[in-house]
Amino acid sequence: MFRSLWNAASGMEAQQTNLDVITNNLANINTTGYKRQRANFQDLMYQTMVPPGEAESLLGNQSPTGMQVGLGVRAASVQKIFLQGSFKETNNALDLAIQGNGFFQVSLPDGRTAYTRDGTFSLDGRGRLVTMGGLVTNPPVNVPPNAKSIHVSPDGEVTVMLPGQVLPARIGQVVLAQFVNPAGLESRGNNLFTETAASGRPQLANPGTNGIGHLQSGFLEASNVNVAEELVNMVIGQRAYQMDATGIRTVNRMLGYTATL
């Protein structure tokens, strides 16, 4: 009887985690480069009264299935889904979207490198290409103060038009990183990820080479959250939570009947 209470309680806890993940997805519908997450579940250990295949009767007959009762469920992981988001046109030459695999590289204040799909770039007071949070791209791109226009090609080459010149001048190169297991990256907030042992080491290449995607200048990658799918998942999670709560109330009434005998 008490096992039923703990089973239902574990289900409520797991569904609470599930709803936390879903609501975070919905909260980031308009977050540039956001990748939706999914909660994955595992059943817990089992209490074995009769192992499968063991003789269970006086006649020595073998039990074909045994008798095992589960002890609940748990949220085993929260997985990032790196599907391509849709593109939205901005007509801003410094806005970049990755068509395919890959991450932009930026330098953190402590000297480490972080990775992002958010290509909302701008120039700081020193002419460096930076993120919304002021993090400098890696490798850095420095735009001369007298540049009249800037262009980023699909293969990541950065050129500018300078006064008195007919041909554009090359000033830098955007280098992308990709990972064997991008779902293993650690989320740091601010649209940033960092490398972990699960993600593997970054593999660096220019856009369009070694399986890394091309760049689209003047576009941003939208969140890959599907609102209809998330709302359906929310309803399913809510109903599962309600059923677990109903299970607790049912067991409580059964214990009440037993206590009054």
User: Unreliable stretches, pLDDT < 50, 5 or more residues?
Assistant: none
Radius of gyration: 27 Å
Structural class: alpha+beta
Query: Approximately how much beta-strand content do the residues carry?
Result: 25-35%
Number of DSSP-assigned strands: 19
Please give the share of residues in helix: 10-25%
- Tertiary shape: elongated
Q: Main beta sheet, described?
A: 4 strands, antiparallel
Oligomer: single chain
Q: What is the N-to-C succession of helices and strands?
A: HEEEEEEEEEEEEEEEEEEEH
CA distance, first residue to last residue:
16 Å
SS element count, helices: 2
Rounded average pLDDT: 91
Number of self-contained structural domains? 2
Sheet with most strands: strand arrangement: 8-7-14-17
Summarize the model shown.
This protein is of the alpha+beta class. It contains two helices and 19 strands. The strands form eight sheets. Strands 8-7-14-17 form a four-stranded antiparallel beta sheet, with no helix packed on it. A three-stranded antiparallel beta sheet has the order 11-12-13, with no helix packed on it. Strands 1-4 form a two-stranded antiparallel sheet.
